Request: fold
Amino acid sequence: MMAELTIVAGFGMLSAEKSIEIIRKVLQQLSVPVARFSLYGESIDLDQAIEVLKKADRSSFLLEGNDWQFHLSSMRHYSIDTLSVKSSWECLEANKWMNEFSSEFSIKQAWVADHEFDYWQNAEDPLQYTSKGRHFEHLPTRSNGLPPPLEQKVIDTSRNPGRRILRVGYVEVVGSPMWFGPEFWQITGKSKDGILSEPWVHPEVFQNNLLRIHPTDIPFSSLDAESIKMQNYLRSLLYPEQ
Reply:
């Protein structure tokens, strides 16, 4: 399973330079070489990455190499920065990444997802299916909302249990494990007590004032009845109805 940890902070809060430093530090702890990476397609060592970003005056990056991928992006419209860390589930060591990033940044939320499951739960463009030889005729569709001649039918993912929706200040999503900072509850208006009263999500205090839950031993990756019920109920505990 390819797993993806996504970390969310306020807009402009995740420094590219400091993020690269943390990535280098954790990879060394995991005995992963810091050479032979690619920064936007250009071969690079992590020791060079900070200087390259400075010269290019970039505050975001896509860094790939040695079976790892790191993507830092800023979304002004939603007032958030996101950093994704992708590798195999066996190698990810999400707690280690969260320890380091939460020590440097104020984290709103974070979660781990099965990359493949997350992709198809949120794939709206029919081309995503045809390019992979997948059928989509049985799936619900909706208009993309654009005027003619740009209007077309897209896959309706609005009822998918694994849907991911950008909101102002946070991302509406479920995963396992998940982490929440104090600001998350202020933004969503939901009560942390709702999660704390559910023993099946295994709530625990994480470092730097984060709450960690892990409702399943591995990230959600199936659409069996029990998993759907669990994902939908977890979403109702965490996010306001829209």
The radius of gyration is 19 Å. Residues 132 and 189 are 40 Å apart (CA to CA). The chain has two domains: 2-114+163-219, 123-156. The chain has a mean pLDDT of 96.
